[in-house]
Amino acid sequence: MRKSALLLLAVSPAVCWAETISVGSVELEIPAPTGFTAVTNEMTSVVELQQKFVSPNNELFLSFIPQAGKETALAGDLPDLSRGFSVQSSKKAIDADISKANFSALKDTIRAQNESLLEKINASVAKMMEKANKDVAEEYDVDLALSIAQMVPMPPHQETERLLAFSMHVNMTANDAQGQPKQSVAVVTATLAHVKGKVLFLYANGKEADLDWTREAGAEWANAVLMANPPDLLSEARESRGSAFNLIDMGGDAITGAAIGLSIGVFAWVRKRLAAKRESS
Hints:
The structure is a single chain. The protein is an alpha+beta fold and 281 residues long. Helices cover 41% and strands 29% of the residues. It is built from seven helices and eleven strands. It has helices at residues 44-52, 70-74, 100-140, 211-228, 233-241, 247-261, 263-280; strands spanning 2-4, 18-23, 26-31, 36-38, 58-66, 84-90, 147-153, 158-159, 163-175, 181-195, 198-207. Helix 3 (100-140) runs parallel beside helix 6. The longest helix has 41 residues, at 100-140. The termini are far apart. Mean pLDDT is 84; it is low at 1-15.
C-alpha cells in the first residue's frame, strides 16, 4: 500500500523526506510534517494500535509520530501519541475522479451541514468505539471503556481552491490506571485536500491546548503536500470530468475519521500509567 520514496523536497525548507502512497491508480508524495517521522511496519505496537482506531469507512495510508518517539516505537513500545498526523481517504472515493466542481460542492456541503453530518454519524461512531474497546480488551487486557461524549466542530478556518480546513474539540471518557472514569478533551484539525483528482483527509491531532498548533502545523503540512504534487496533464483531465459520488457520505467520513483517530492518544496515556502501576506494585 505504501513505499518509501525518500524524496528530497526543494520546495519546502521545513520538509526533507516524503513517502509515496497509492490512491487508486494515482501515486502521491506525502512529505513528513516538521519534527515528525513516518510510522513504519517495524513500529509494531503503533501500527497494531492505529488500525484499531481507523474508521472502517476510511483507508489509512500513512501516519506520523513525533521524531522524539521514533526509537521507542522501533523498540516495540508506545511513544507519546498525544500529537500526530495521518493521511486518510474515504474508501468510496479512492477509485473516483474528483473534479474541481465536485470538490467545490464538497466544501459547500461541509460548510453548510457540519452539525447535521455529526448527527448522522453519532450512532456509527458509538459502534466503532464499542468494537475498539473490545479489541483493546482482548489484545492488551485493558478495560479502556473509551467513549466519545461530544464532538464540537468549528466553522472552517482555511479555504482555498484545493483546501478546506476545520477543527473539532472531542470530549472523551476513559478508565484510568485505577479503573476510574477520567474525562479528557482532544483537538483535531482536518484538512480536505484536492490533490491530482483525489481527496485526502489530512489530520493533525493534539491535546486540548493544541488548537492553534494543529491549525498552524496542519496548514504548513497541507501546503507542502500540494507543492509536492503539482497538477499534470493526466490529473487535469481527471479533474475536468470527475465521477459521481455522495457528498454527504464523504463529509461524514472526514468527520468520523477525525474523531476516531484521537482515541489512540488516550489509549497510549492509559497504557503508560498501567505499566507504571504494575512496576510499582
